[in-house]
Fold this sequence. Notes:
It is a single chain. The protein has 295 residues and is α+β, with helices and mostly antiparallel strands. It folds into two domains: 2-69, no CATH class; 78-286, Fumarylacetoacetate hydrolase, domain 2, CATH 3.90.850. The protein is built from six helices and 19 strands. The protein has helices at residues 25-28, 36-41, 43-52, 86-94, 167-170, 227-237, and strands spanning 2-8, 11-18, 21-24, 59-62, 67-69, 78-82, 104-107, 113-114, 120-122, 129-130, 133-139, 155-162, 165-166, 186-194, 205-210, 213-219, 245-247, 269-274, 278-286. The strands form three sheets. Strands 1, 2, 3, 4, 5, 6, 7, 8, 11, 12, 14 and 17 form a twelve-stranded mixed sheet that branches. A five-stranded mixed sheet has the order 9-19-18-15-16, with no helix packed on it. A two-stranded antiparallel ribbon has the order 10-13. The termini are far apart.
Amino acid sequence: xxxxxxxxxxxxxIGKVVGNQVVDLPASDDSLPRTMxxxxxxxxxxxxxxxDVSADxxxxxxxxxxxxxxxxxxxSKFLAIGMNYAxxxxxxxxxxxxxxxxxxxxxxxxxxxxxxxxAVHMPRVSDNLDYEAELCVVIGKRCRHVPVxxxxxxxxxxxxxxxxxxxxxxxxxxxxxxGKSFNTTGPTGPWIVTDDEVADPHNLxxxxxxxxxxxxxxxxxxxVYNIYHQIAxxxxxxxxEPGDLLATGTPSGVGVAMTPPSWLKVGDxxxxxxxxxxxxxxxxxxxPDELPFAA
Length: 295
């Protein structure tokens, strides 16, 4: 299935994409929940009910008429692994970054989550805006201490992700969290492709295009630590919950590593494509005027 969170005609719901149609799942079957995290938390039985909803009898909208939102708009965790492709790690070393002999994880605060086709804000405080194309894993089961051999069983599915980064703010904290967590810098989508529809998540072609020019291209087989080792490693430390997001690493070709650095500018269009999953596309706009503080 291709699972989505969407809005249409002042109505917000979750659904599945069937061809060029969207099936509104809770409107079609009132036993189904209205949020993605609730759907994923329902486990295999809930997913079977969602799969059984037919476009022939369900409440259906044309795909062209809906607004696709972040499939999981409110994850409890948004975690990302750094330097998980060898050539990108080499880029980092050339920039003076020490690459340890272990997995490097950081948080993207969940307030950064953004839709697959929504604008990304150029921060008022920085022009060091950069892109990172990634495959995102969506956790489907509450789990802890997951063996590598069982890790696939806890995956709900896969999305496209852009780990947009504010590089000067990234340097301000050893955890990298600040530069990874500006509002709008976590576009994901366009949908969750469920695990049963992906033959091998470690054999997917991934690309980043900026204004139509390919900047990054890699096959996920080139990960240093594959997805199952990532899940085993993280679940040693913490309980993973349905709807948690794991960004699995970006390849070489990031703007900061170019000479001179090639920062994103207002008006630039980022498009991340993953074969068999889909694409997301986000345009950089000035950060909107908002009150900095409201009592």
